[in-house]
Amino acid sequence: MSTFLQLHLLTTFAPANLNRDDLGRPKTASFGGVTRGRISSQCMKRSLRTNDTFTHNLQKLGTRTRYLGEKTQDSLINRGFDENEALEYTLFLLRINYLLAIPSEDKAEKTLPDLQISFVSQHELDTLDKVIDFICDEKEAFLEIYKQKTNIYKAFKTDKANGKQQELKSSVESKLKFISNDNCSPDVALFGRMMASNQHLNIDAALQMNHPITVGSAQTEIDYFTAIDDLADDLNKTGASHINVQYYNSGTFYTYLNVNLDLLAHNLGDIQDKELVIKGIICNLIDSITTITPSGKQNAFASRNFADFVLLEIGDQTPRSLVGAFYKAVSSENQMQEAIERLLSYKTRLDNMYGYKLDVNDYISSLEINKAKNQKAKEVSDLEELKNNALNTAFFNLKNS
What we know:
Layout lengths: L3 E13 L11 E4 L2 E4 L3 H9 L2 H4 L7 E3 L2 H11 L4 H14 L21 E3 L1 H16 L1 H7 L6 H6 L5 H10 L13 H6 L15 E3 L3 E2 L6 E7 L14 E19 H8 L5 H16 L8 H4 L7 E7 L19 H20 L5 E7 L11 E2 L3 H18 L1
Parallel strand pairs: 11-12
Antiparallel strand pairs: 1-9, 1-10, 2-3, 4-5, 6-9, 7-9, 8-9, 10-11
Helix pairs in contact: 3-4, 6-8, 11-14
C-alpha cells in the first residue's frame, strides 16, 4: 500500500485578486448553492514550483518550455551548421524523441512548428547538449546515412539501406535519445508531466491539489480608482488623468493537497541520495504551501498571508478532502474559528464512518489550536516540529510498506 502525506490549510485573505479570470475578476465557484472565491490548482502549483522556499537546496530542477526546438537549432548554428542544416537536424531530433509528429509528405520544411509545452528534467537538458555534441562530432557519418534524401527522419527510419548505412544507424540511434523517465528532476517527479506525442514518457504526478475555495460566501467587489496628475495644478488643469476599476474579494480559503510518497520515490528513479531528496521535497513543500501566495495583483493589494491553520496527516489510507465541512457556508463573525471547529468535527465523523483513524498520524499547528477540540490529532507548537513529525512518520511508513 502507498503512503500518503495530506495537508489541509485554512488561510485568510483581506481584499485581494490572487487569480483572475478572462474579465479580470477573481475566480469563483458555486458550492453548496453559494458563490465562493476560488484559486485554481494550476495557479497554486505554479506558485509552488517557482517559489524560492520550494526550490531551496533542491538540485537540477526541471524546466517547462515549448522552445526545445529553438534551443537545439541555435546550439547547432553556434556550432557551425548553416540555418537550413540546423533546422533539418533539429526536426530530426525532435521526431526521434517523439516530440514532433512525422510529416505526412516527403517535402522540405522551412520553419520549426509549434511544440507542445513539455516539462523536462535538467538531466534531459544536459543529455540534449551531449546529443548535439555527438551530432557535431559525427557529422560525416550522418551525411552518409542521409545521402540523397529530402527528409532526415525518413532516411533514418527506412529499412532500405546498404550495409554501411544500416551499421551506422544502429550505432548512433541510442545516442540520439534525450527524453526519458530516468533521473527525474524533483519537481517533475512531484508535479508530473503529460507528453501527448508519446504516452510512455508521461509521469504521473505524485502531488494532487484542490482548487482552494472560501469557506463562506465571497462577493466580487469593485474598486473604483483615479490617478491624479502631479503637474495639473501648475497648469490649471482639473480632473483626474486616469480612471479605472479593479476587482477583488476576500475570505478564508480551504486548501487541500496530498502526496503519494511511494509514487514520488518511484518517479525519482535512480537519482543520487534519493532519501535526502525526498526529505528536502517534503520540508520545502510544507514550508512553501503554508507561506506562498499567488502573484496576482500583489502591488495593488499586498495580500501576503500565511496559513492560520495546518492539519497534516500521514498514513496508508485512501486520501480524501475535508471540503465537505464547508458545504454549508460559514457565516459567523469569527470565520476562522468556526471553520477549524467544523473541519475537525467533520474529520472525526468521517474517520469514524470509514475507520480512517487506523494507521494515520495527525499533526496540527494553528493560531487557534487552544480553542479547537480534537483529541485524535497531536498538537505541535510550530512548523518546524510539524516537519520533523512528518519526516519521521513518512520514512517509517515508507520503509515498512
